[in-house]
């Protein structure tokens, strides 16, 4: 019983704010460790690909970024559903805090994909199913951010944005399959836990980088959610105390 | 249930008939956008025939979107929308009626004028039938999905631009299957598959989208 109570306690911004602040350094540290290990494995240890040469090494950024861009949208939709169902304040803040990181990942995925496509396919961009769906995902992120930014009332922004996220999640499979039937050129997924077509070191490098991106996204989302909390709860006593504390720390 | 829907449809149609300029201007927007493409890309009939389905469909998306902000804005301004929201029958049914009325006013005219524009693009007879059918079957989905965007942006500054950011990515499947139906007909593959998928999208959007739009309206009216 006390366990449950403890978890619910952190649904309040006043208690989650210090918890998030305490967790951020750990996530940053773990992200840096995974990043160094992943880059070392990917750039120095992994063998050169016999078909694609050294250029393939961009997948150590490209694939984790693509995974994160899709995963973050699902997480945002999860928070949106929680927020709409239980009317919690923190859920909408989490969704909004995740959005810029998700958009960044989608953009990184497209950008590194273009850098990879130039030497491999001979072109920066093709209208292929996966590229196009990733581009549409970026549009969905931008639409969400534009909508929440346009609404002044924070609670309405959370709810309207949440509804848009849920509509988007329902549409993502439809968009994905319609685009897939429309055109396909992208190479199939090379990651398959049972029988991978990649060298083991490559796979490990990619998984380490994925962990690094994961931890980075969590750290960034927590940092952003802390700022959102301060902004939205600025009329409350705990924020005033917190700000007084920060100002006093600066003066020292 | 049907009574509510038909009542809302006849009311919205009556209102639309009193402001016919709105209907006509959206229709002419469609005609003008379509006519701009040959001027931009040159008059070669082969090229135009290839581009026609995509051009007509993109213009149809834009023309539908142009009339979306008005779907709820007028009722919101004079307070009717709040009365509808507190009425005993579900708001989703009211929105269903409004979506159907919106299609009758904005989607149906596009389908009727499409064959004429298709002739300008030198389309064959069977391609003309396919483009008309695909616009006829596909535009209700545009009205349905668009209602969600219109409800979410209700009363916001810059609502018109915002609505396009929200709604256009969701329109992509309709565009793909709509233009694909014509392409498949022209290449001899037969457009029935595409048209069936388009009909599925339409039924799904008319069935589900009004309820999502109703939820969005309740958020906006809080």
Strand content of chain B: under 5%
What's the shape of chain B?
elongated
Strand content of the residues of chain A, in percent? under 5%
Report, as a whole number of angstroms, the end-to-end distance of chain A: 43 Å
Write the element-wise H/E pattern of chain A from the N-terminal end onward: HHHHHHHH
Count all strands of chain B and give the number. Answer: 0
Report mean pLDDT of chain A, rounded to a whole number: 84
Low-pLDDT segments of chain A? none
Overview of this structure, please?
The complex is a heterodimer of chains A (252) and B (222). Chain A is an all-alpha fold. Chain A has one domain. In chain A, 80% of the residues lie in helices and 0% in strands. Chain A contains eight helices and no strands. Chain A has helices spanning 2-9, 13-45, 59-86, 89-121, 129-150, 154-182, 200-232, 237-251. Chain B has 222 residues and is an all-alpha fold. Chain B has one domain (2-221). Helices cover 87% and strands 0% of the residues of chain B. Chain B is built from nine helices and no strands. The model of chain B has no long low-confidence stretch (mean pLDDT 90). At the A-B interface, α5 and α6 of A face α8 and α9 of B.
Which keywords apply here?
heterodimer, A: 252 residues, mainly alpha, 80% helix, 0% strand, B: 222 residues, 9 helices, elongated
Short description:
The complex is a heterodimer of chains A (252) and B (222). Chain A has helices at residues 2-9, 13-45, 59-86, 89-121, 129-150, 154-182, 200-232, 237-251.
